[in-house]
Amino acid sequence: MHDSIENYHANNFVVKWYSIQSAHTVKNMRKLLLTGSLLAGTILLSAPALADDAQELAAIKAEMRRLAAQVQAIESRQAKRHPGSSGSVHSVAHGATASSSIKPGNKLATAYTNQPDREDPSIRFSPDEGPVKTASDTHGGTAKGGLGFKWLPAASSDDTEEKTHSSIDLSSASPTAITQTEVDRLPPIFSIGGISVKLGGFIDMSNIWRSSNMTSGPATGWGNFPYANSPNHGLSEERLSAQLSRLSILMEANPSKSSRLQAYVESDFAGSGSTTNSVQINGYTPRLRQGYFTFTQKDWGLHILMGQAWSLATNYAKGIIPRQEELPAVTDNNQLPGIVFTRVPQIRIGKDWNQKYWLGLSIEDPQATVGFSSSISSGSTIPAARGQADGARVYYANTGGMLLNAATNYSYNPVPDMILKAAADTSFGHYEVFGLARWFRSLAVEPGTTTTKKHTHFGGGVGAGMTAPLGTNRLHLTGDILAGDGIGRYGPTQIPDTTFNGRGQLTPVPEIMGSLGLVGHPNSSVLLYTYGGVEASGRKRYIGADGKQYGYGVNDLDLAGCDVEFGVCSAQTHTLASFTAGGWWHFLQGRYGSMMAGLQYTFVRKFAFKGNDGLGHSVDPATSGNTVYVTFRYFPFQ
To answer: Which residues contact 141 (CB under 8 A, 6 or more apart)?
Structure first.
């Protein structure tokens, strides 16, 4: 330590003397200054490790950064006086004096020599490198006490491109880099015990315009575009929002050479509390997007996931492992009509064969949505069926209790949804097929009885997805499809899963949804996309004692008011189709992160089941809507 103090005073004297010398002398003294600093670091790092080594090392690094800042300040002043003689620490570090003074085994000196532009190189290391043991692992409380916090050592000297390389690559097959943080590609920032920690996320600023006022944030309720009876139909909406700003944390550990544990948490600010408003302070609340842990055993090809993640029904770009979802490259947080997805708690087990063929089973938390030809709340009585004097009283949901939202209803869930998916990764693209099983439960007090009776009905469907290049890696085709009964909650339009039959039982509604997208990558900084999507519902209805139809998809409703302002319109959605086009430009990147700009346009057309005008004439209600997003995102970690 005595040597470091002497070097410290000597360097201060050198800096003062240096500032008044000629430009030629300045260059020589910069070499001496950096050489003295690096020698001090080399001597201390090669000394025996003591209990306070970590603290001394941190102090030395801080002093080295301070001295480097002084050199840069002096260089700046000298450059103004002598424009032709500008130099840098970088050139000195690679000069003969610096090179000859650095010992081969000195990692700290090597890091400063090869990575001079980093403010603190001690917090980065190669993604394939495990946490490195320090003196505190064998001296002091870290090893004995279990967990310890450590900044990770510097990157290796051959990692010189990392300082300007971004993990965002818009020439990739999947645009997940912009719809989901590519935290896997980032180097760990620090470690806690044997766990490395990576940070990801972005700051989002979106300007949203809609042709109809839906009073929505950065997520469009595609099935809620109003008909002409609503005064909001022709009233446009303009809104600025930063709610999609996101933070993610990935924690990793390797219990053995062939096994890996990961924990991933992702949050944004799209939540809304009971006191949230946009009057003076837009206090929108953080919400859990994803939160799960995974276990991977590479030799067995085993993959286990537990927690909240994208559903296994979601289309994937590769395999069936998390953070490889083929999410559309759109800004809207409700994606697009026809896209199959949910984000729910689940337990998933998967198996791969050489990471080429995949099989997975997921047990996922369900919710059932209910639609009816008239307003029916849980505990209400539906119209009597033909041959019945009274209708059944139905129960299908309860309001939220402890740790659930008391302002919404939760359906009765007899068992979780179950999804079985098989996938293949080939040289011609990624392809997958899956089956979905669901169960719906309700209680009913049937006509002539005084007690409830439990009813459970089965629903589900089959689906497929693919992502394939079209002759070149610069153009990709992606698509998905799902068809079945009671699958509405898996689509953004939220066509109801179920309706009631004449006995008060929940019965699944038939539906089909699908999308097709074309994604182009002119270069690594530009991504262009276009998508088309559709969701369509079938009919489930019964004939009432009054001869009218009840349920979902009925065609004898009086819909004359749908085209008259302030008229009554109870139209039920039959089909919703959309077209979207947009692009992203990754226009800035460096040690300071990355920035992207996005532009997106979506046209939506909604069709209702036919009705009449009360005079025997057929009525076909329809409406349309337009949305435009202009988005900027800053990725500080990428």
So the answer is: 148
**Interior CA angle at 182 toward 178 and 183, to 5°?**
145
Instruction: Quote the CA–CA distance of 606 and 621 in Å, as a whole number.
Output: 9
Q: How many domains does the chain have?
A: 1
**Would residue 17 count as lying in a domain?**
no
The whole domain housing 331 covers 201-240+298-635
**Cα gap 147→72, rounded to integer Å:** 39
Which tokens sit at 277? 């408003």
Task: Supply the CATH number for residue 452's domain.
Answer: 2.40.160
Q: Quick one: how far is CA 620 from the chain centroid?
A: 39
Q: Is residue 281 part of a domain?
A: no
**Torsion on CA atoms 289, 291, 297, 303, rounded to nearest 10:** -50
Residue whose tokens read 């990754």: 586
Residues comprising the chain, all counted = 638
pLDDT band at 99 (very low <50, low <70, confident <90, very high): very low
Q: How far is CA 368 from CA 354, 435, 552, in A?
A: 38, 18, 15
> In the beta sheet, which residues pair with residue 433?
422, 464
Token pair recorded at residue 533: 């999507």
| 31 within domain boundaries | no
SS3 assignment, position 512: strand
Mean pLDDT taken over the chain = 81
In a domain, 462, yes or no: yes
Q: pLDDT by residue (tens digit) across 373-421? A: 988 899 999 999 998 889 999 999 999 999 888 888 899 989 999 999 9
One-character DSSP codes across 313-343: TS-BSSTT-TT-B---S-S-TT--TT----E
Taking residues 276-288, what's their average pLDDT?
86
Q: Does residue 436 sit in helix, strand or coil?
A: strand
Give the whole-angstrom CA distance, residue 202 versus residue 635. Answer: 4
